[in-house]
Amino acid sequence: MKLANIPLGGRLLIRSRTDWRTAVVSRVSEERITLSVASPKGRNYRLGRDPKLEVECENGVHILCSKHTEQWRENFATYDMRW
Question: Band of the pLDDT at 58, cuts 50, 70, 90?
Answer without folding.
Answer: confident
